[in-house]
Amino acid sequence: MKLPPISYRRAGSADEAVALLAESGDDAAVLAGGQSLLLELRYGDVRRGVLVDLAGAADLAGLAVADGELRLGALVRHAAVERLELDDPLARLLRRAAAYVAHPPIRARGTFAGSLAWAHPAAEWCALARALDARMTVRGPAGEREVAAEDWFRGPHRTQRAPDEVLTAVTLPLLGAGAGVGFAELRRTSGSFALAAAGCAVHVAAGRVTRARIGLANAAGVPVRAAEAEAALVGSDGSPDAVRAAADAAAAAADPASEPHCSAEYRRHALGVLTARALTEALGEAA
Amino acid sequence: MDVRMTVNGQPRRVAVEARDSLADALRDGLGLTGTNLACEHGVCGSCTVSVDGEAVRSCLVLALQCEGSEVRTVEGLADGDRLSPLQEAFSAEHGLQCGFCTPGFLTLLQQALDDDPFLDRDEQKLTELLASNLCRCTGYVGIRRAVVRAARAGRGEPPAAD
Ligand SMILES: Cc1cc2nc3c(=O)[nH]c(=O)nc-3n(C[C@H](O)[C@H](O)[C@H](O)COP(=O)(O)OP(=O)(O)OC[C@H]3O[C@@H](n4cnc5c(N)ncnc54)[C@H](O)[C@@H]3O)c2cc1C
Ligand code: FES
Ligand code: FES
Fold this sequence. Notes:
Number of domains of chain B: 2
Shape of chain A: globular
Oligomer: heterodimer
Keywords (chain A): FAD, Flavoprotein, Oxidoreductase
CATH class of the largest domain in chain A: Alpha Beta
InterPro entries (chain A): CO_DH_flav_C (IPR005107), CO_DH_flav_C_dom_sf (IPR036683), Diverse_Substr_Oxidored (IPR051312), FAD-bd_PCMH (IPR016166), FAD-bd_PCMH-like_sf (IPR036318), FAD-bd_PCMH_sub1 (IPR016167), FAD-bd_PCMH_sub2 (IPR016169), Mopterin_DH_FAD-bd (IPR002346)
Low-confidence stretches of chain A: none
Domain FAD-binding PCMH-type (chain A): 1-177
CATH class of the largest domain in chain B: Alpha Beta
Bound molecules: flavin-adenine dinucleotide, FE2/S2 (inorganic) cluster
Largest sheet of chain A: 5 strands, antiparallel
GO molecular function, one term (chain A): oxidoreductase activity
CATH topology of the largest domain in chain A: Uridine Diphospho-n-acetylenolpyruvylglucosamine Reductase, domain 3
Number of helices of chain A: 11
Mean pLDDT of chain B: 97
Pfam families (chain A): CO_deh_flav_C, FAD_binding_5
């Protein structure tokens, strides 16, 4: 099946992408990895006449650590995150979650930032962005601004990004030595989107949990930060009872949708189980 | 408009529309119909080809995105009538029945073998890789045996004993 007629524009820089978007107004879409956009166009879920390809924008390519933060430019692909080597537990968490993002040939082209822009409620990167207080940098005709993850997600496939803005980078704070990380996901087949997933990072000192960050995928129309679960865990000894209490709080905080293969009730239960698994993994490795 | 790519080692110029996928350009523009299209959703992998040393879904890449790229399709694996070691291994291990998925598996696995001649040593990773593509006939056992056989052959080792 052919895609509908489109015109294709190649941007040589982020600024050029912004200019090309402005030229075509509402009819334009940013083309990053194309692993969601091209199939949405093919099946008529999205209608756009002009695609602005970012691939040639060298200023969007970087993946770098500075000032205690990891900055992923818009062109950084899932596969690069899957191979990320960093002297920080954040890399371990990202690598673990990457293994759940689609399968290798999709990961070879799809981008980290594209996932944040697409804002699918089941997306692993969106849940982690919410858990870890990521910041999105967007550039439009009026210049550049940063949006915190808690403000970014507006609903399924809806974000704070205006149609004439390019998401240029996503920034994640490093976790710091000693953090434990965990990720757990339920999906129907390998390569399927998550039915539910939980990712977390914890810090432990003198036998007490001092910090916990938990993000849930597919717990609602937007990624959920399980703040009640975090509060339940912090100050505790991280024992199985404490983990169970946190998992119950996470499940209670979820407002999951129902679908044929996953009722809301089942999904809520799964979110509790996955939270417990992710936390157990993280607590097991926290120094 | 035209797109220039190196396809199976040959410089090619293909007339395409902006909306043509790489699969469209290969099949309709160059007559390389070994690349099969099925789901056109990125799910099945029957359209897999290598682009610049990465196995990708040619249904989810625009031809114009491949300007200047090196593309390898299933037609690029054999040397004339001589099958590649991976193709031989598929035959020896019955890695196919209907054969519809085979070009996608061959391109996926050839790229993986090029990247890592020892890929059969990490069983978990090999399972994940094989799960990239769908085969509705073989149950994957023959395909797995074929890639293991090809990896061993590439290292000059005899086929694994059962
Ligand atoms: C078979 C299959 C399985 C998948 N499984 C998963 C999964 O399990 N988990 C998961 O999270 N994802 C999954 N995906 C989606 C995949 O991760 C996509 O790569 C990702 O969602 C979008 O990234 P992209 O770079 O391909 O973006 P595109 O497809 O190029 O773009 C997606 C949308 O975001 C916009 N956009 C992208 N980048 C920018 C930017 N920098 N600035 C402004 N707008 C932008 C586009 O305009 C478009 O609306 C799957 C996809 C397929 C085909
Ligand atoms: S036809 Fe491309 S993945 Fe199925
Ligand atoms: S051999 Fe028939 S689908 Fe794989």
